[in-house]
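Field log, afternoon session.

UNIT: design team B
ACTIVITY: writing a sequence onto a fixed backbone
BACKBONE:
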């Protein structure tokens, strides 16, 4: 009987073990929460590159689990509820993970080298880069 109990416990432990890769795949909704400072935007109809130094202003995002606040020169500019969804991108013609605000603006979400990259999912939209505060 002890032998069967031991085999049962060993079997359960193998079944309940998770892949080590799962620990490194933190969901976007968890990674995005926090305060983010704007470092760069590029694109638009003229393909310009904008930075705090070139524009003379700052931008900041404060993101909770369901609200995103946009600050301009440390003053609250806009606030919106949002969801993170996988949708067909109108600029890439494939599905991408996006922030969808309550006013239906769509930003593709990417993380590169510890930076938050928001890509407006429309023609002539900006790509903006943020660093965690």
């Amino acid at each position: 009987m002890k032998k069967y109990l031991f085999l049962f416990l060993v079997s359960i432990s193998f079944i309940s073990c998770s892949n080590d890769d799962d620990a490194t795949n933190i969901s976007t909704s968890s990674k995005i929460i926090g305060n983010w400072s704007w470092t760069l935007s590029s694109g638009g109809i003229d393909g310009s590159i904008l930075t705090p130094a070139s524009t003379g202003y700052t931008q900041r995002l404060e993101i909770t689990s369901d609200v995103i606040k946009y600050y301009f020169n440390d003053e609250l500019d806009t606030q919106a509820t949002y969801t993170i969804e996988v949708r067909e991108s109108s600029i890439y013609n494939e599905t991408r993970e996006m922030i969808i605000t309550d006013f239906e603006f769509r930003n593709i979400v990417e993380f590169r080298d510890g930076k938050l990259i928001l890509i407006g999912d429309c023609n002539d939209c900006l790509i903006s880069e943020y660093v965690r505060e």
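LOG NOTE: The chain has a mean pLDDT of 83.
NEXT ACTIVITY: expression trials, pending approval
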